[in-house]
Amino acid sequence: MIRTISQDRPMLVFLILGLLSLFLPVGMVEEAGFGWTNDLSALSLAVIGLVIAVFYMLTRPTGRVGALVVIAGVIIAAAAPLALIEANTVHSFSAYGLWLFVIGLGFYAWRAMEHMSGQVKDSKLLSLVVPALFGMWLLYIWQVVTTGFKVPSVLLPSPDLIGLAFMANLDILAGDFYQTFVKSVLSGFAFGCGSGFLVAILVDKIPFMQRGLLPLGSLVSAIPIVGIAPIMVMWFGFDWQSKAAVIVVMTFFPMLVNTLAGLEATSHLEKDLMRSYAASYFQTLFFVRLPNALPFIFNALKINSTLALIGAIVAEFFGTPIVGMGFRISTEVGRMNVDIVWATIAVAAVAGSLFYGILAIIERSLTFWHPSYRSSRS
What we know:
Layout: H1 2-7, H2 9-21, E1 27-30, E2 33-35, H3 40-59, H4 63-86, H5 96-118, H6 124-148, H7 159-168, H8 170-205, H9 208-221, H10 225-236, H11 240-263, H12 268-276, H13 281-315, H14 325-334, H15 338-366, H16 371-377
Helix pairs in contact: 2-3, 2-5, 3-4, 4-5, 4-6, 5-6, 7-15, 8-11, 8-13, 8-14, 8-15, 9-11, 10-11, 11-13, 13-15, 14-15
């Protein structure tokens, strides 16, 4: 039995730190000093989490049963520090037993994600659970540290305060999202990537243009966004058109370079085969070269999906109607409403991640035949 327990090092570390923390101060019992707390609910949750950890190490359940056991143990054990913090019995560094228990929880969560990663091949659902569990763990640490150490909300608000700000300002955030993402980002992304793709085809067809356009494109891409944005606001006004123009400038060159690299990736053997069929330039382009260039094109699209959102938000700092993510961030920082600022950042992060994920799904559906995709699945 001892040998079985010792083989699982992350869980063993959690057990040692968890049991040790039961004998150390974790919260205020009386005004006179600190001790293990008189909150029986928190104590019960901590003990149940330790018992589940011991059960997991002794029985070694596999498959989905083991995944449910280890996740349940993590959730129950993680609820103990939150119960203490919500009861206002934790006073920063004095409750060092609590922080020792939280460190042990890190090893518990590590073991849970390790177990889930081993089950990814058997279930597509588990492949989504692993990154979700990691994200939830980061939010949990954020919540515990900010509330346990009583970090001022002006410096760093806790996730629950950000969530409350999100729900209280849902209409405002929805309007900002529509102005920045739907109007500016999508239009600028479409124009920038589309023009970069068409110019790449033109440059490939007319070789002398490559010597003139590529140095000029690299020069434009090196201009900082803080230098472009005010000029575009003067040219196109304060509405979404100026932000879309900034995004076009930012996304044009990555699409141009990646498309040209993809078109050059076609081997001479494939080109000679098409010549033997008496294929024209455009037949070779559409049936051989562009399909081979799809991984490069989607690489540019994914890069530009993040550049477009960053460019739109930064461009709104230099002039915009009274709506937009960049406008909301700049104005609410001045008002010291940092929770609304973080709620806006959360909306931008989720929107950017979903945009990137949609492009990755489309890429996988269109390039499933490509050798790079086949090798990644083997």
